[in-house]
User: What shape does this take?
Amino acid sequence: MCGITGVFAFTDAGKLAVAQLQRASAALQHRGPDAEGVYLHGPVGLAHRRLSIIGPAAEANQPFSDSSGRYTIVYNGEIFNYTSLRSKLQSKGHAFCTESDTEVILHLYKQEGQECLKKLQGFFVFAIYDADEESLFIARDRFGEKPLLYYRDADRLLFASEMGALLELGVPRELDYASLYQYLQLTYVPAPASMLKGVRKLLPGHSLYIRGEKPKEMLWYRLSFDADKASQNPLTYKQQQVKLKQLLDQAVEGRLIADVPVGAFLSGGIDSSVVVALASQKVQQLKTYSVSFPEQPYFDESKYALLVAKKFNTDHTEVRLTQRGMEDQLEGFLNSISEPFADSSALAVYMLSQYVSQDVKAVLSGDGADELFAGYNKHQAEYRLMQGGIAADLIAKLGPLWDILPKSRNSYTTNKVRQLQRFSTGAKLPAKERYWLWATWQREKEALALLRAEHQTVAESRLYRYRKKYLLEYINNQNQYNLNNVLIADWHLVLANDMLPKIDMMGMAHGVEVRSPFLDHRLVKFAFSLPVSSKIALDIQKRILQDTFRNVLPSELYNRPKKGFEIPLLHLLQTAGETGLFEEYLSDKFIKEQGIFKVNEIKAVREALKAGKEASVQSKMWSLLVFQYWWVKHLKS
Assistant: This one.
């Protein structure tokens, strides 16, 4: 796990960016505090920040060149099958001078060129420069666990692990209003777009080849999915469970590979508990970490984490997140975000990672299981609609009642009313629009109303409509449409653009690598070959995952309602407003001078937050605050 950045110059003017490489590298220091290096040759400059986890000896520091000096690599990630790949390469005459997976990737590229990607098991972004050809090959892993942004104009191509490094390299600081519009709805900017015009995110499973002045982006991996074939899976349910356990165990074992200790996040939910159950069989006194909210019982699930820790005899630490503690960490958290990202649970991951970094450099997590096995409440809602029945019809017809009842995310009752209202609203919409409603935190009309009139046409442009259509491509074929379509749409939208950036960004803010066994590509392929009936029923979510480990995990985990990982955001924002934070970034005077948002609309959000009665007001305010802090730091002239 590291940070990479680089320049490929097409002209002499483009080479001027090379002079900024050291500053760009410094912007990534948190990603790799153990070593740094810069490589310059011809039109190319590469820089690297290293977090040493596999093959930590100094000989493996990067940029790393082969013995001939022709090939040089900068790399961020981990390859879990690198030892077997190394043995095969040695049998073909390749000689190695380090114990690192970095050198294995370089030799594999020398042997097989771009086809090498298909043999890599793990997560990665790397760039390999061929000095003889003066070509650069950049590739991103199958599901987007590791980030890569790039910018290209007539003079140069610039790339980096984070936006902050690109800004140091001199990318234009021009806001993309179509991206801002999506961000206000989703709380993040989906790839391939970014918050800056011209800056793109390399899509998961894609590569970029640059030679001369013609960069070529290519798809090297696409998750195969056939809804009809999945519905006819030949394995019995029991056979599916046996295979799931085998694949998960294999994935956990692979992700424990490291030359430093590996711990695990433990929320107390099914997903992380399964991972800990399997990992504890391979690591004595596995270090596990959870968060608690001692002042906010509704958000506190630490007792379930403790049950799991005791059952599997882990070395467990509970990180207590208090209101004062979150307020103290707020500025550090906001400074760690180089592109607006407003999933509020990221603050908890940031604080947890800060503590974990004192003990270990790598942790396992349960990310991806909800998207594979239908773990979100919206999946249950969609399934109920598909099944029909009196209950679903009644909830939909009671829309006027849900509209007038109090709704919020801060108690069980008001949150349930919020969910029933969203269900009722979604039930009246076509599948694509319903999916978009349930994926967003703010309706399109509401988000658009926040922007000044001169920006609304730009925001809701053909570009925005194209991006939205692309994100909804799997919600189609109504004759074959089932819940698996929703899951694969979530895999590409929610997981790739929210969950994975969150754990990468927050973990790497403190030099911690997060590894999820549920993202093993063999397990993912298997999960999407399963019928919907294996994943969900009216009375159970993540059915096959729960049933497979029912006799392994504490029974208490099975007798509680599904609850997402959230923080007490409303209270935090109301307190933050009292400190003057809103006056600094959201006052009428500031908004008017900034020229992006409508003064009266932002004022209405502030007033709604004080009242605390609008269900979505906290996410609206949080998104605005995160954006404003970023804008002041990076774009305000």
